[in-house]
Amino acid sequence: MHTQLEHTWSQIQAELRRAVTDSTYHLWLAPLKARSLDGDVLMVGAPEEIRTWVADRFARVLQTCAAAVISPATTIVVVPLDAPLPAEADARPAAPPPRPSEAKADESFNPKYTFDQFVIGDGNRLAHAAALAVAELPGQAYNPLFIYGPPGLGKTHLLHAIANYVRSYGDGMTVRYTTIEAFTNRFITALRSSSVEEFKRRYRDTDILLIDDVQFLQSKAKTEEEFFHTFNALYETGSQLVVTCDRMPRDMNALAERLRERFESGLVTDIRAPDLATRMTILRKRVQHDGVQLASPDAIEPIADRITTNIRALQGALIRVVAFHSLTGRPIDRALVTHVLDGLYPGARPQQRTLAEIQEATCERLGVSPEALRSPDRSARVAWARQVAMYLARELTDETLPAIGRAFGGRNHTTVMHACRRASERIAADAEAYELVRALTARLQQPDADRGS
Ligand SMILES: Nc1ncnc2c1ncn2[C@@H]1O[C@H](COP(=O)(O)OP(=O)(O)OP(=O)(O)O)[C@@H](O)[C@H]1O
Description:
Elements (H helix, E strand, L loop, with lengths): L2 H17 L2 H8 L3 E6 L2 E6 L1 H10 L1 H11 L5 E6 L5 H4 L35 H12 L8 E4 L6 H15 L5 E5 H13 L3 H9 L3 E5 L8 H16 L3 E6 L11 H8 L2 E4 L5 H15 L10 H6 L4 H18 L5 H11 L10 H12 L3 H5 L5 H17 L4 H7 L5 H17 L1 H15 L8
Parallel strand pairs: 2-3, 4-7, 4-8, 5-6, 6-7
Antiparallel strand pairs: 1-2
Bound molecules: adenosine-5'-triphosphate.
């Protein structure tokens, strides 16, 4: 390491120590090492067992501290400790590596969503088996494969798992993933810019097309028409189609009959809420993956007991527990977990809230108007209120990312993902933020009659 880099890094470490509690620093930030500083890009190496967690949870605080020492334009990239440095990797001028906190583009695959990481239980056994069969024998096993079920139960995970599998073992087969939102946006852009042929090639020149959230096709007549032709073109050439939806084909009343029939012509399989044993396995896997230290192996049982219908919420509760542990330095035992859950869900189970209720409660607490949340205003106060409200929307409702984006002034789903990540980083690093989100959650979880202002 260059002396200059060493010096800069020790200054950033001093800032980090001031920004977070001792236990957070020692647990997550002390093991980091500066790898290189190239222009505005500082590459920080993290041990493999904590890298994802650090990149997901501490990008913001790292960014702020590095900005204070180097320059406001500094970007932090969290890489494996032994990742090749840009100069070693390639002599050509390389584009800066992706920012860890940057949300994935609409159509890229999440490398973490693999079949290996997917825990199988009674609720998802068939969907998993069908997805694996399709990944192994595209176009031959079930075509189309239609997976439906409520939010947060792993439909997107399975689509990405197929994509990752085909990328690794597919012998050069091509695979494309898209959401209906991305498909629609690209279609509209293609119409406006007279590049429909290019649009068609994009979706038709592929061996496997994976399409998420087809319920959003309803009421978009032109996109639906185009989608129908894409579907037929692929199907006729033997390409594999896999579709996810929040309901059965026959319950999509606003969809043309001919498309519903297409969806029903292959295998239609559902995905249901996981049982207790599956929920525990999912939590344990996550704990192990993120290198979370538990005081006892059963400490996380109360999470699996209480959060029963949505795996995203299950993981969200674990994140809160770890954040609370980082902030207080208390060990993660049953008492701490129960304390955090009681704060989150005073009733026995999480209660659903509407997006409007969440926006209203957040605005009231932070002194911001609901119109501001929906406006382009990016001042720190409004941006923070928006991030908190989006984070709570993700935790306390079953709304999808595009639906949340729409309720916040028509923002797209990557913006919502960014916002949720920013909020969860801040909650893990800043006691005041943690308390704010805890109090808001508790208030939104009270039965209506008790919710005073
Ligand atoms: N069986 C499982 N094993 C491990 N993790 C899972 C499983 N099912 C879901 N998850 C995790 O739960 C989270 C939510 O899953 P995912 O986004 O795939 O849900 P979804 O059904 O597509 O929901 P939505 O319709 O809201 O997009 C992801 O982090 C995913 O990795």
